[in-house]
Amino acid sequence: MDLVKNVGARIYPVGRLDYSSEGLLLLTNDGELASHLTRAASHVPKTYLVKTSGRPAPDGLEKLRRGIKIGPKPGPRRAAPMHTAPAQVRLMKDATNPCMKSRLIEGKNRQIRRMFEEIGHHVEKIKRVRYGPLVTA
User: Fold this and answer.
1) Residues with active-site annotation
2) 43 phi and psi, to 5 degrees?
3) Averaged in consecutive runs of 10 residues, what is the pLDDT profile of the chain (137 residues)?
């Protein structure tokens, strides 16, 4: 937000990326639009490229595709465990540390990292490449 503080209008971020993630970030001066796009009930899909440490087993990926129970978010205000909505997960590059494309309709705090941790794999890198119909170049 420091980069757009002098634009003459209030700017709202649409969604968020955690500190160690990168990629598409939307900004708007329309607060209603920002609220609508970030609400889970809107079912706006977000697509990420995810690189994991180690190759997840097919049954682990299937758990992500069905929806998985993830533990509480880290930090002092720990929420109860939750069940995620089904995610689309597709292997993009098969390697020791593979790259997958993951599509979510939710955006819970550190959700992708928590989902992959639940199936036993640390996420090394996340890049958001699509938000609804908008795609990075």
Assistant:
1) 18
2) 55, 40
3) 79 86 91 86 91 95 95 68 92 94 88 94 96 88
